[in-house]
Design goal:
globular, mainly alpha, 13 helices
Amino acid sequence: MPTESRTELAKPPAARTATTDEVAGLDALELGPASKEGRAARLGRRVWDSLWPKLLAVALVIAGWQIVYLTEWKPPFALPDPLTVFADMRELIPTAEFARAIGITMQRAVIGFLIAVVIGTLIGAAVARFRPLRAAIGSLITGLQTMPSIIWFPFAILLFQISETTIMFVVIIGATPSIANGLISGIDYVPRVWLRVGKVLGMRGLNLYRFLILPASLPSFVSGLKQGWAFAWRSLMAGELLVIVAGQGSIGVLMQGAREFNNAPRLLSWIIVVLVIGILVDIAFNAFDNALRKRWGLTQS
């Protein structure tokens, strides 16, 4: 045995503990002080780094809008200037009509999306699990995903008349294929070694999906959920503009009302509201995706 190894083994436990403490101290020095001020500064810097490109983009859009308005390309009653629209938004947002419209539209979006998640997850898991089923309907799912959602409305109206069910039907059928394809793609990329290890550990059937396959496919599944939400949101907006349900003052209904009365500031106000909602949901999905990637060690902490 080498002399160095015998010397190391001969050290008392206290000496080895001191060495460990020294290494921990060096790690602490490398990481730097974890003061509240330091954490707050880093958080503020990250928020600003993420925020300023968005603010710059908004400023450029508003500047371009103002330039187009000044060119008098369209009359002011059709294309108002930004200040007029922002003034209309200040009047609109505090009203009960605004809160009611947001509530109706978001309720439809959330319920339709959750139903699509359940259906898409079941279909995706079944198609990924059974090869004959994939051969039968795998291409059909992709084909449905590429179809414009608005093409389903004539058929949905024929089935359900002018009703809430018509809108929900199109929202669900628009979002489900993307969710199913996201799960199928995630399951396809689960390493075969993991599956063999799971079977060695006694995982079979539902437990194999619950504890191994679904967690492993989660990053790709989240991307499918994000895309599914985008399809659901676009389908819902098209549905609310085409299918006017009596007594339901949703965003689409109020937008149609603004168009009929040639109220361009109010119409543009609702367009901005829809855009903001889409951006906020996208930020929420990105935050969840980043947290998931960090948990999986795919990004720097």
